[in-house]
Amino acid sequence: MEGPHSSKPTLIGRGRTFVRRRPVVSTIAAVSLVGAGAWLIFGFFAFQTLFTDESVSEANPFAAGAGPSGLPEDATTEAMATAMNDAMAAAGKTGDEVVDEPMSLDGVTTVVAGSFISRSHPTTGTAEVITDGTRRFLRFEGFETDNGPDLNVYLATGDPDGPPGDFVDLGDLKGNVGNQNYELSADIDIERCSTVFIWCVRFGVAFGAAPLS
Fold it and tell me: How many other C-beta atoms lie within 10 A of the C-beta of residue 146?
C-alpha cells in the first residue's frame, strides 16, 4: 500500500518537468539547423563566387558589326563595296589580308573617362562615357574585379573613396572580367553623376570605383 510519501509523485513531477523543458531544447535545435542550412545556401554560394570569374567581351557599341545592320545577310551595296576597297587601298591592304588595327569611329566622342580604383576588392580598368550624338553608353575596358554576390553598376554623385550618395542603378554587373557596355538614358546628368561604383548590394560595400572627368 502506498503512503502519502511515496516516490510516485516525485517521478511524475520529474516527468512533467522533462516534458516542459523538452520543447525549449527542440526549438533551439531547430533554430540551429535552420541557421546551418541558411549558411550552407547563402554563405557557401556567396563565397564560391569569389573564386569563379564571369568573363564578358562586348565590342564598342558604335563599332561596325557591333549591332544589327538592318540589311539581309551578306547583302552589300555598291557604295559599301567601294568604300571598303578605298579604305583597304589607303591602308595598303588587299582583300586577302586581315585588318587587325582598331577602326576609328567617326562621329563618336568620349564625353568623360576615368580609371578604376580599388575599394574593398582589387579593381582595375577604365570607364568612359561615349556618344555618337544620339545614344550614350558607359563602357568598361580592361576591366577586372573580384566576383561577388549582387554586384551592380551605379552611376553616382559620391566621391570614389566615399559612399555613392545619389545614384542611378544601371543594373547587374555583366561580368567581373572584360569589356562591357551600359546604355545611359537621356535624363542622366553626367556632370552630376560623375562616379562609377561597382556596388555589392547584399553587403553594402563598393568593390571599386572610377571618377569620371
Answer: 20
How buried is residue 189: exposed, middle or buried, by Cβ count under 10 Å (0-12/13-18/19+)? exposed
Determine phi and psi for 178, rounding to 5 degrees: 115, 170
What is the C-alpha to C-alpha distance for residues 156 and 195, in angstroms, rounded to an integer?
5
**DSSP summary character for residue 60:** P
Three-state DSSP class for residue 149? coil
Give the three cell numbers for residue 91: 591602308
pLDDT grade for 105, boundaries at 50, 70 and 90: confident
pLDDT (tens digit per residue) in 117-131: 999 999 999 999 999
SS3 at position 49? helix
Residue 191 backbone dihedrals phi, psi, to 5 degrees: -65, -30
**Do the Cβ atoms of 88 and 99 come closer than 8 Å?**
yes
Q: What is the spatial distance between Cα 89 and Cα 83, in angstroms, rounded to a whole number?
A: 10
The number of beta carbons lying within 10 Å of the beta carbon of residue 60 is 17
**pTM across the whole model:** 0.62
What is the per-residue pLDDT across 144-169, written as a single tens digit (0 to 9) for each?
999 999 999 999 999 999 999 999 99
CA–chain centroid gap for 65, Å, is 25
- Supply the pLDDT for residue 47: 54
